[in-house]
Amino acid sequence: MAKKYPPHDVKDLSLAPAGKKKIEWAERSMPVLRLIRERFAKEKPLQGLRMAACLHVTTETANLMRTLKAGGAQVVLCASNPLSTQDDTAASIVVDYGIPTFAIKGEDSKTYYRHIDAVLDSKPRVTMDDGADLVNVLHGARKSLLPNIIGGMEETTTGVIRLRAMAADGVLSYPIIAVNDAMTKHFFDNRYGTGQSTMDAILRATNMLIAGSRVVVCGYGYCGRGTASRAEGMGARVIVTEVDPVRALEAALDGYDVMPIAQAAKIGDIFITVTGDTSVIRAEHFANMKDGAIVCNSGHFNVELDLQGLAKISKTKRDLRPFVEEYVLKNGKSIMVLAEGRLVNLSAAEGHPASVMDMSFANQALCAEFMLKNAKKLEPTVYGVPEKIDKEIARLKLKSMGIKCDTLTEEQKIYLSSYDMGT
Question: Does the reported pTM lie above 0.85?
Answer without folding.
Answer: yes
